[in-house]
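Data deposition worksheet. Section B asks for the primary sequence of the deposited chain exactly as it was used as input, without tags or linkers unless they were present during the calculation. Section C holds the resulting structure in token form. Section D is free text for depositor observations; keep each observation to a single sentence. Incomplete worksheets are returned to the depositor.
Section A, Depositor: J.P.
Section B:
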Amino acid sequence: MVTFLEKTPLERPVMVDGVRILEDGSPAIWFTFPGLWHDVGLFHLADHRPTGVYANILTPVLFRDPMTWETLDLFLDVWLDLEGRVRLLDENEFEAAAAASVIDSTLAARARSEADAVLASAAAGTWPPPIVREWTLDRIRQSRSDE
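Section C:
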């Protein structure tokens, strides 16, 4: 499932290591894959310059119907910048959630395993999947105009 946000509404920019990766009004393309324990976001700035690829570690999405989805965010995120540097994000939030039993130990272990797999695949150059690179802003806008 590919979801396009023409203008992402944000109260404050999303930053990684002091670098703005997504800001109010920025376009974002989200890829949701049945059965996967993460989704993938292709991020841009408001001027449409790409910034990188983001993964939310989450439970596999349950598609109730085309407009109703269910999932549980597992706090960990992975960021891959345009230079190929990959980084695990929000580890402190993940640890706090696990310590407070917001997520149980089995789910925490599965989340950590998924994050490690995404990190390793990104470092090896095999993540994100090719479809993410294929769906540029131009392509998604063109597909919308074809409807």
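Section D:
DSSP finds four helices and ten strands in the chain.
The chain has a mean pLDDT of 94.
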